[in-house]
Amino acid sequence: MRRIMVTPHKQGCRYYFNQPSVLIKPYIGNFQQAFQTFKHPSVSLGMHQRNRCRSQYRCFASQATIIQRRSDFSTISSEDLSYFKNILGERGVVQDEETLDAVNTDWMRKYKGTSKLMLQPRTAEEVSQILKYCNSRSLAVVPQGGNTGLVGGSVPAFDEVIVSLSHMSKIISFDKVSSVLVCEAGCILENLITFLDNQGFIMPLDLGAKGSCQIGGNVSTNAGGLRLLRYGSLHGSVLGLEVVLANGTVLDMLSTLRKDNTGYDLKHLFIGSEGSLGIVTKVSILTPPKLSSVNVCFLACKDYESCLKLLLEARRKVGEILSAFEFLDHDAMDLVLKHLEGVRNPFPSSMHNFYVLIETMGSNESYDREKLDAFLLHSMENDLMSDGVVAQDITQASSCWHIREGIPEALMKAGGVYKYDLSIPVEKMYDLVEEMRVRLDASAKVVAYGHLGDGNLHLNISTPQYDDNILAQIEPFVYEWTSKHKGSISAEHGLGLMKANKIHYTKSSETVQLMATIKKQLDPNGILNPYKVLPSSLLTKN
Amino acid sequence: MKIMVAIKRVVDYAVKIRVKPDKSGVETKNVKMSMNPFCEIALEEALRVKELGLASEVVAVSVGPSQFTETLRTGLAMGADRAIHVEAPENIYPITIAKILKALVDVEKPGLLFLGKQAIDNDQNQTGQMVAGLLKWPQGTFASKVVLDKEKQVATVDREVDGGIETLCLNLPAVITTDLRLNQPRYATLPNIMKAKSKPIKKFTLQDLNIEIKSDLEVVEVTEPPKRKSGVIVSSVDELIDKLKNEARVI
C-alpha cells in the first residue's frame, strides 16, 4: 500500500488507498511535488511505480478511507523513553530502525505505520505499568503478537507505540486429566502444538499462519481456521484469560474450570475485540486429545447443489469424526495448477466444476475407514459426486490439503487480487459468486473457495492488474449483497483497519452504539489500538 | 506375462518416530501405518507396464500379520488385479522374506518381480537382492527408469548409483527394485477403491510354503540417537577463543 503524506497543508493526514478516491483525484496533479510516495515491497509485483497516484499499486478490498491522526494523542518524549527503560531495562525498549521497519508493516504488506518505539515486556506487571503510563500520557498503543493478521489490525496506523508480546512465551502448566493448557499470550501456536503433541493432545485451532501467530493474537481476533468445524470457536475452548486494561488494571480471569456460572462471563468481551478493549497476557485453553486415525478425501462434484448434499450426507454419516469440509471451484483449481509448483491434479483426465475436501479424525483406523467408505459409496451411488480420491498416506493427504491451502498463494502470483471473507447462508453462498461473474464478465476472474462446513466464503477476484473500474463493480455491491442476505462482511479475519467503517453492513446501529459505550467505559482515552474495529465517528471524545 | 509386486506396511513416512519406553523397539501402536513409499512406486511401475499392454496381470504380495491386508487393499485400489497375503509375525528379516517370495514365485511364476529398494522402517535394502540370488534371476536395483521389450524378453533398467546412472539390460524373468525418481504413484480413485473390495486376497501360511523362521539375530536395544547440542552464543571474541581452545580443542 502506498502511504501518501500530504505536507504542509494537513499535518499528519494519511490516505489509505487502493486507488485514488473520487475526492482526491482532482488534486493529485497539483500536489505532485508535495507528495512523498513510499515505494512499497508489494509494488514489485511487476507493477511500475510512477509518481502520479493513478499508477497501479497494491490494492486492498476497500475503498479509500481517509484517517487523520488524532491530535489528542501525544508523541514520545525523552522522559517517556527513560521511564520505559526504567521498567523494562534496555532490552525491552526497541528503537532500532530495521526491526521497527518490520513490525510497522503487516503480513500482507498492505499497511505500514511510522511507530518509532516498540516495547517488549516480560510480565503482566510490566504490561500493566506500560499501559498505566501511556494512559496518563495519552500515548496510543498497538498490541502486537505474530503480526499475521489480514486486516491491518496489528500494525500502527501512525506512530502508536507497539507493545509486543513476543517475550512472554512461557508455557505455565498443562494438566493431562483436565486437558487444560495455561500459557502466556506470546506463545507461538506451532510451539504449543509441538508441546501438546508430546503429551498426546492438540490445539483446538489450526491455521496456515501457525508458524508465526501467537495465541494471544489468536484469542484477541477469535481466529477461526481449519478445525472450527470440529472443535468450535475460541469462545468455546478458551476457559480463562488474564487481561490488562487501558488504565493498567490486571484483570485475572485465568480460570481453568470447565463450568463457572458466577456473574457475567467477561472474557468473551476480549475474545475477538482485536486488542481494542485490553491486552491479553495469559490464556487458559481446553485441548482435545490427539487422534491417530486421520483420513482425507478429495471429491469432484458437477454442481453446487451436489456439494451441499454431500455436506448434509457427511454430517449424517461421518458427523462424529468429521473435522474439515472445504470447497473450491473450477477457477480456484485452475489457478492453483497453473501457478503453484509441485501440485498434482488428483483427476488428471478432466476438470470438474467443484471440488470438496473432507477430513475425518478418529481414534480407530479400521472403524473410521469403514464409515468413510460407506459414506463415499452411498454418495457415489446417489450421484452426489462425479469422482473422488482417498489419500492413502500422510503425504497424499498433505498434497490434497496443499491444493486447498495454496489458493491464496496462487492468487498472489496471478497478479492483483481483491479479497473478501464473508459468512453467508450456505444455500445462497454460490449465488454471490455467480452474480459477481455476471457483473465482471471477462474483465476479471472470480475465484471462490472456503470453509463450506462453516458457511464461510473466501471470494477472491483476480485481475492481471489493479483497476478502479473493476473495484467500483465489486464494492459496495459485495457488502450490500452480504448485508441483504444477513451475512457477515468479515467471517474470521476481523475488522482491523481495513473494515473499521464497515461494521454497519452486518451489525445494527444500536448494537454498534453499545459496543462504543463499552469501549469508552473500558478505554476512556481510546489508547488501545485506535482507528480500528469500530467507526471512528462513534468514538470521538465529547 | 504376470508381474508380482512385493509390498510392505510400515509406519507412515510423515510420522515422527518415537522409541518405546522399554527400548525394545519403535512405537507402532496408535501410529498411522501405510504402504512403504518405495513399494508404492514399485506397484505404480507394474501398473504402468500392464497399461502399456506388456503384462496381463499384476499381483500384489505382502508378508506379515493380519493388518497387512489393509495395505494390500490399497494396492488393489491402485489397480492390482489380485493379492496374496502370507500370514506371518511382524519384523521378519529380509532373508526370510526373500525365501517366502521365492516360494511364491515358484507358485505364481511371474515374468517380473518388482520391489521397493528398501523399507523405510529398517532401511535394510536387502530383500530384492537376496530373492534375486535365491531365484538366480538377474537384478536391476535402484531403478530410475524401466523399459520393457516384450519380444526380446529383455528389460532395460537405468540404475541410480553413486557415480551417476548405470544402464543395464536384463533378460526376463528378472527382479527390479525401485528408487524414488522412477515415477509418481497414482491416487486411489473411488471407483477403483470400490472395485477393490471384490478383488480376491489369497491367504498362505508359512507352513503352506514350507518356510521356517529361524532368526540368528536378536534385537537387544533400540535407542534414539543422542540429541544434537544446541549452539551457544558467545558474548565476545575472547570468549570465543577461550571456547575454541579449551572446550572444542581445535586451536
UniProtKB/TrEMBL annotation, chain B:
A Pfam family recorded for this sequence? ETF
Question: One biological-process term from Gene Ontology?
Answer: fatty acid beta-oxidation using acyl-CoA dehydrogenase
- MF annotations from Gene Ontology: electron transfer activity
Q: Which residues form a coiled coil?
A: none
Per the annotation, which location comes first and is thus the protein's main one?
Answer: mitochondrion
Name where it's found.
Answer: Mitochondrion matrix
Q: Does the keyword Transmembrane apply?
A: no
Where do the Electron transfer flavoprotein alpha/beta-subunit N-terminal domain residues begin and end?
A: 23-213
What SMART domains does this protein map onto?
A: ETF
GO CC entries: mitochondrial matrix; mitochondrion
Q: Which SUPFAM superfamilies match?
A: Adenine nucleotide alpha hydrolases-like
Task: Tell me the keywords, alphabetical order.
Answer: Electron transport, Mitochondrion, Transport
PROSITE patterns hit by this protein? ETF_BETA
The UniProt family comment states:
Belongs to the ETF beta-subunit/FixA family.
PANTHER family per the record? ELECTRON TRANSFER FLAVOPROTEIN BETA-SUBUNIT (PTHR21294), ELECTRON TRANSFER FLAVOPROTEIN SUBUNIT BETA (PTHR21294:SF8)
SUBUNIT field:
Heterodimer of an alpha and a beta subunit.
Function (record text)? The electron transfer flavoprotein serves as a specific electron acceptor for several dehydrogenases, including five acyl-CoA dehydrogenases, glutaryl-CoA and sarcosine dehydrogenase. It transfers the electrons to the main mitochondrial respiratory chain via ETF-ubiquinone oxidoreductase (ETF dehydrogenase).
**The name this protein goes by in its record:** Electron transfer flavoprotein subunit beta
- From which organism does this entry originate? Capsicum annuum (Capsicum pepper)
Provide the taxonomic classification. Answer: Eukaryota, Viridiplantae, Streptophyta, Embryophyta, Tracheophyta
